[in-house]
Amino acid sequence: MLKYRVGEVLDISNLCARLETLRRSGKKIVFTNGCFDMIHPGHVRYLREAAALGDVLVVGLNSDESVSRLKPGRPVNPASHRAEVLAALTSVDFVTVFHEDTPYNLIRAVMPDVLVKGGDWRPENIVGSDIVADTRSLPFAEGFSTTSIIEKILSTKP
Predict the structure, then answer these.
(1) What's the rounded Cα separation, in Å, for the pair 90 and 71?
(2) Residue 155: CB partners within 8 Å, gap ≥ 6?
(3) Coarse DSSP helix, strand, coil percentages of the chain, rounded to the nearest 5 percent
(4) Beta bridge partners of 61
(5) Tell me, what DSSP letter sits at residue 123?
(6) Residue 147 pLDDT more than 80?
(7) Mean pLDDT across the chain
(8) What is d(CA 65, CA 6) in angstroms, rounded to the nearest whole number?
């Protein structure tokens, strides 16, 4: 019988406390981050691959203000909704929202064993690669893009 677990949405201090306990028990922590505005199969595949690199997957989620600065006209969904959806994925253990435009301070606080981003990032250009020894870029699942989904919705508008 499969057991489906639900991840947790935590603030940074509670997240770090939980991770410290997990680290002491020998768990390998994986970290990724992003806007995750409209979850699509590409996100699901990416998060599953990231989770497979360790024991615990932490997702840093850009706040609404941060997304707005990075992607004009976005987010479509508020951070609370995006966090809830991410936490419901079986590959995600913890979600925490950060307010800066880059997750550098969050990565420094979490200090993951593995840092992961999508295929449009070269490992040496990933924010936090200077402090995390194992930094990886995972390939994109072709044909999936939040921007293209939004464009399709807008083009079918009456």
Answers:
(1) 28
(2) none
(3) 40, 20, 40
(4) 34, 97
(5) G
(6) no
(7) 90
(8) 26
Query: Measured over all CA atoms, what is the biggest interatomic distance in the chain, rounded to whole angstroms?
Result: 56
Strand-pairing partners, residue 135, are: 115
Euclidean distance between the first and the last CA atom of the chain, given in angstroms as a whole number: 46
DSSP-derived secondary structure letter, 124: G
Q: Is 67 helix (H, G, I), strand (E, B) or coil?
A: helix
The secondary structure of residue 71, as a DSSP letter, is: S
Q: pTM value? A: 0.89
34 forms beta bridges with 61
Token pair for 38 = 């409209």
User: Does the domain at residues 8-155 carry the CATH identifier 3.40.50.620?
Assistant: yes
48-52, 71-75, 85-89, 133-137: segment of lowest average pLDDT = 71-75
pLDDT of residue 157: 60
